[in-house]
Design goal:
This protein is about 40% helix and about 15% strand. By secondary structure, it is α+β, with helices and mostly antiparallel strands.
Length: about 270
């Protein structure tokens, strides 16, 4: 096995990340230029107001599913870990640090999503998420070793680690949120959203066979607003968890909306 070494390209990327971090900017360590078109998933997030880069659609779905949780403060993707510490941890654990097999070049360990939350008392805490499509396969032992390195690393900083599998993330929920994310508007007053929700629910209850398009049209007429703005209010009501709609089922304009059980929604 080749001797482990750190390339100048790796050091340059680490320096860029650290310099951006000092300026309060997050730069994902794995950039789109280093991924094939079939692997990468890139989009502009209007909530965090920057381009988000993922290794695949599964990570994007996890991101969007977490993004609108009421206690989420910030999400950072492809977060690099200090390779000096990860080397030390790998040695302590008695495992091989991630590297390129043929050359011995060190591979920086990254965390898929590092999410900052705020609890009921206003205190912030972080959780490091590792996204995996499945458990098992011939490389599972090596995968577990890499996960243990990252988990041990974050434990040193008082950060909990959690592994998320593809089956743990609802594709329908992710698609529902993605389909409307371009209508996100943080400046809409919650009172305006609540008035919209009340009017929309009145129509849904009175006319359960109405399609979503028909219910939105009736709501627009009742509130004397443009249909396009009615759609914007609908989207932001979902984002703010103000509408008891079942996001686990696909939302279609030509079908009636499906409300969630109030106990589940609450």
């Amino acid at each position: 096995m080749k001797k482990l070494y750190v390339s100048e390209a790796t050091n340059r990327k680490v320096r860029e990340f650290n310099e951006a971090k000092k300026r309060g900017i997050h730069i994902p360590y794995v950039k789109s230029t280093f991924m094939s078109a079939g692997t990468r998933s890139i989009f502009f997030c209007p909530v965090q107001k920057r381009v988000i880069t993922f290794m695949g659609q599964g990570e994007k779905h996890l991101y969007i599913s977490k993004l609108f949780d009421s206690n989420v403060v910030e999400i950072k993707e492809q977060y690099p870990l200090d390779y000096v510490l990860t080397q030390e941890i790998a040695d302590t654990l008695g495992v091989i640090h991630p590297r390129k097999y043929l050359t011995g070049e060190l591979t920086v360990v990254t965390t898929d999503l590092l999410i900052t939350y705020r609890d009921e008392n206003g205190s912030e805490y972080r959780v490091a998420y590792a996204f995996k499509y499945s458990i098992g396969g011939r490389n599972q032992t090596r995968t577990n070793q890499k996960l243990e390195i990252a988990e041990t690393y974050w434990k040193r900083f008082g950060v909990r680690s959690e592994q998320i599998l593809r089956d743990d993330v609802s594709k329908d929920k992710a698609h529902n949120l993605i389909n409307y994310i371009d209508k996100y508007d943080k400046n809409i007053c919650i009172n305006e959203i609540n008035e919209f929700v009340t009017t929309l629910l009145d129509d849904v209850i009175k006319h359960p066979s109405h399609t979503l398009r028909e219910s939105l049209s009736a709501t627009s007429a009742s509130l004397h607003i443009e249909p396009s703005y009615s759609m914007t209010l609908f989207a932001n009501a979902i984002f703010k968890n103000a509408l008891p709609i079942d996001l686990m089922q696909e939302i279609k304009l030509h079908k009636p909306i499906k409300l969630a059980l109030i106990s589940k929604w609450g």
